[in-house]
Design brief:
The complex is a heterodimer of chains A (about 650) and B (about 150).
Chain A: H1 7-19, E1 27-31, H2 34-38, H3 41-54, E2 65-69, E3 81-84, E4 88-90, H4 98-107, E5 117-118, E6 125-126, H5 133-136, H6 154-159, H7 164-172, H8 175-185, H9 197-206, E7 213-218, H10 227-234, H11 236-250, E8 254-260, H12 264-280, E9 295-301, H13 310-317, E10 341-345, H14 346-358, H15 360-364, E11 374-381, E12 387-392, H16 397-404, E13 414-419, E14 425-428, H17 438-443, E15 452-457, H18 462-476, H19 482-499, H20 507-521, H21 525-529, H22 532-550, E16 563-567, H23 577-581, E17 587-590, E18 593-597, H24 607-611, E19 619-623, H25 640-644
Parallel strand pairs in A: 1-2, 7-8, 7-10, 8-9, 11-15
Antiparallel strand pairs in A: 1-3, 3-4, 5-6, 11-12, 13-14, 13-15, 16-19, 17-18
Chain B: H1 3-11, H2 20-31, H3 36-46, H4 50-59, E1 71-76, H5 79-83, H6 86-97, E2 110-115, E3 127-129, E4 132-134, H7 142-146
Parallel strand pairs in B: 1-2
Antiparallel strand pairs in B: 1-3, 3-4
Helix pairs in contact in B: 1-3, 2-3
The chains are: A alpha/beta (about 650), B alpha+beta (about 150).
Chain lengths: ~650, ~150
């Protein structure tokens, strides 16, 4: 590939790519993001290719292409394939479906009904991807291209208009104008804090010190969040283009991607994207003949949540332990190696090409007064449509969970939605109609965070959730400052006691005091926001805390020390299912002998409760009440005949 | 792991202390643990004191200073898996293997680890054994999955 040396050469090259592509030629896009891969997408790709080969279509002009793409979001129904140009979306595709897909859909132009999305509750199927409710209620500015491009091919990105924003920035705008555009768009940082990106850029730009650095923060550590991974895996070029534009605006010639090593595919795709961009002349010296030089390197994180905090990230980049330092000075003043540095999250950078291409007013036209544009969330937990969703700011939580997410799974009752990861909070039903916006979420005790959104149902214990996050944070606190290290440890100790039935009066108040001290006195945002899960669960679910402390009862039947499993002798049909499945061998009984759980041996894993056939419904969960004594041996003989009369 | 192999890894990076984490990550992924001899070599070549290397490898979770088992079980304890029953799953796997997270058994069959999120939340609860994903797990399924790894 020869380097592209000017804007006109790029346009000629783009034309050439498009002229070689027949828009009518069927293309089977298979999602090979991490979620679909785990569900066997690689086997589906292999089966499709084999089938195409078998039918002798491989080298026939204009018949079919197979493309391995990034994540389009609907992880719940993976492996997903979309057949262009008709946009036929097949879900839960198995290798065995390949033959039919090729012979029916590609050759005979017939849609395979059983692979389509079925609308729940009614006899209706949906063929087109964009008409499926999960997608219809989204606004996919950033992840919409994922299913159209092979993230390992820069040509694919160019075919959908890629790098036109860089051209516009380099040749039609001064660096100052680019900064102004970003400021004008009101784009706020997507990593969690929501600081206006344009202002951050301006600080770094105005600092006379040299050299300057730009960094992509892809240390996505919130458990249950994978927005950044999907962007890096599915469309790494858009982030790289955004970073290059930012470097031009700020006056930087060296950039870094800080990616966590737990995301091997993201590391691979971004490394390859950088290599290709260098070959094409979108990186390196004299980019597109503009005179602007910019080089990028990838740095892998080594497994430390705190490195998502920018000063820790900088320490880690320098090869040190990722411990934060106090700010100010902010990285724009003293960053990497003491030089001015601008750090933005993956999603923030991915918004930049959009702002340049469509204008600052376009982004500013989406969303609420204080929060503009779209936001990607990973909608997970007890929700029907688990996946990645991109929605305009200002949409209500209810619309995200019910219209996009399809509601709570398993017909259970909604309890809370947790946003913002370990630094966020739990929002109850009564606040589901608030608008998703940096400020609105903060008002109800949660935060926007980077975009994790975990739906919780009636089977989720809120004391356990708070304990879970504090346990996570106590393992991730770097230990440098006392309020965070000790505050989290003490709160965790109290929460563990409460969940084990050792809670006492005054514990809730003590938690509230500790939460306040930890929030106010910690050095960095990890400690400062660590009390949020505790505060928000106490605020909305105080009754659950009280039930644990006063009645030694876990209303959601989660806290092991407070629950027991019991087989109702009146309902047990001695079917042997629970007895065989019990991993602790704690159930006694026989074919005609009513089963009994040995409470001493029971590990409370819940297997018996899950496997007991719903028509018997004999296994009961108890909390806050004693287990009824076992019935006498002679009464355990099941007389089936008498039941029939 | 011999010095030649270690030198080859070190030579890929700029020869200064800022390369330390990247070099260690690569040795870890190649050798699956960090023997003391390897650390000494890194210390000499990158000119970083050994006690600073110790600090780094205990600070970051990606590193191990003990040999790992033939099969690595990663139980996802991310939030989505947690609310879908990961703690009960982890308990059962601990009972089955006799290991606690971070431990390896004596005949080096299994190492057990927890991970904060593998990002396949639709499959939760998830365990990953040697890079292979097992989704929608339940305590009752654990034994059947683990017996495939000898």
């Amino acid at each position: 590939m020869p380097r592209i040396n000017s804007a006109s050469e790029l346009e000629a090259f783009r034309k050439d790519i498009l002229s070689k592509r027949d828009p009518k030629k069927p293309c089977i896009s298979v999602c090979t993001g991490t979620g679909c891969l785990a569900l066997g997408a690689a086997k589906v790709v292999a089966a499709l290719k084999e089938e195409i080969n078998k039918q002798g279509l491989e080298n026939k002009v204009g018949v079919v292409d197979v493309k391995e793409t990034g994540c389009p979001g609907f992880c719940e129904r993976g492996p997903i394939i979309v057949i262009h140009p008709e946009e036929i979306c097949y879900l839960q595709v198995q290798p065995g479906d390949a033959e039919e897909i090729v012979s029916q859909t590609i050759l005979a132009k017939k849609v395979i009904d059983r692979l389509l999305y079925a609308v729940p509750g009614v006899d209706e199927k949906i063929t087109r991807e964009s008409e499926i409710p999960f997608y219809k209620n989204q606004m996919r500015n950033l992840i919409g291209n994922n299913i159209k491009i092979d993230p390992k091919k820069l040509d694919d990105y160019l075919a959908v208009g890629g790098y036109s924003a860089l051209v516009k920035a380099l040749f039609q705008n001064t660096p100052e104008q680019v900064v102004e555009l970003v400021k004008h768009s009101n784009l706020r940082g997507r990593g969690g804090a929501g600081f206006p990106a344009g202002r951050k850029w301006e600080f770094a730009r105005n600092n006379p010190d040299e050299p300057k650095y730009v960094i992509v923060n892809a240390d996505e550590g919130d458990p249950g969040a994978f927005m950044d991974r999907a962007l890096l895996e599915g469309n790494p070029f858009s982030v790289l283009e955004g970073l290059t534009i930012g470097a031009y605006a700020i006056g930087s010639h060296e950039g870094y991607f800080y990616v966590r090593q737990e995301y091997p595919l993201a590391v691979e795709n971004i490394t390859l994207a950088i290599k290709q961009a260098e070959e094409y002349g979108f990186l390196g010296k004299n980019i597109l003949g503009s005179g602007f030089d910019f080089h990028v390197k990838v740095h892998r994180g080594a497994g430390a949540f705190v490195c998502g905090e920018e000063t820790s990230l900088l320490a880690s980049l320098e090869g040190k332990a990722g411990e934060p330092r106090s700010r100010p000075p902010y990285p724009a003043v003293k960053g990497l190696r003491g030089k001015p540095t601008n750090i933005n999250n993956v999603e923030t950078w991915a918004n930049i090409p959009l702002i340049i291409n469509k204008g600052a007013d376009y982004l500013a036209s989406i969303g609420t007064g204080g929060s503009k544009g779209t936001k990607i969330f990973s909608l997970v937990g007890k929700v029907n449509n688990t996946g990645l969703v991109e929605v305009p700011m200002g949409i209500t939580l209810r619309d995200i969970i019910y219209k996009v997410g399809g509601g709570v799974s398993g017909g259970k009752k909604f309890k809370a939605v947790q946003t913002g990861g370990p630094s966020g909070g739990c929002i109850p039903e009564e606040h589901l109609d608030i608008k998703v916006d940096f400020d609105e979420l903060a008002k109800v005790g949660a935060i926007m965070g980077s975009g994790g959104m975990i739906v919780m149902d009636e089977d989720t214990c809120m004391v356990d959730v708070a304990r879970y996050f504090l346990n996570f944070l106590s393992g991730e606190s770097c230990g440098k400052c006392t309020p965070c290290r000790e505050g989290i440890r003490q709160m965790l100790k109290i929460l563990t006691n409460i969940s084990e039935g050792k809670g006492k009066e005054g514990d809730i108040e003590l938690l509230e005091d500790l939460a306040e001290a930890t929030r106010d006195a910690s050095l960095c945002a990890l400690g400062g926001s660590a009390p949020n899960p505790v505060r928000s669960t106490i605020r909305y679910f105080r009754d659950e805390y009280e039930a644990h402390i006063r009645d030694k009862r876990c209303p959601a039947f989660v806290c092991k020390n407070l629950i027991s499993y019991h087989i109702d002798p009146a309902k047990c049909q001695a079917c042997m299912i629970c007895l065989r499945k019990c991993p602790a061998e704690a159930i006694t009984g026989g074919k005609k002998q009513i089963h009994v759980i040995d409470q001493e041996k029971c590990t409370k894993c819940g297997t018996c409760f899950e496997v007991c056939p719903p028509r018997f419904h004999a296994v009961k969960r108890l909390s806050g009440e004693p287990v009824p004594p076992p019935i006498p041996e002679e009464a355990r003989i099941l007389a089936r005949e008498s039941k029939q009369t | 792991m011999d010095n030649d192999k270690i030198d080859k890894i070190i030579d890929k990076y700029p020869s200064d202390p800022s390369s330390l984490i990247q070099v260690l990550l690569e040795i870890q992924s190649e050798n699956r643990w960090l023997p003391k001899e390897a650390l000494k070599r890194v210390s000499e070549k990158l000119n970083v004191p050994l006690n600073r290397i110790q600090h780094i490898i205990t600070f970051y979770k990606a590193f191990s200073v003990v040999p790992k088992g033939r099969h690595e079980i990663h139980v996802c304890t991310g939030t989505a898996c947690h609310v879908r029953g990961a703690p009960r799953l982890l308990d059962t796997i601990q009972d089955l293997t006799g290991l606690k997270p971070g431990e390896t058994d004596e005949d080096l069959r299994f190492s057990l680890e927890t991970v904060n999120c593998v990002g396949c939340c639709a499959l939760g609860p998830v365990i990953v054994v040697d890079g292979e994903y097992h989704g929608k797990m339940a305590p009752a399924k654990s034994e059947d999955v683990l017996k495939n790894y000898e």
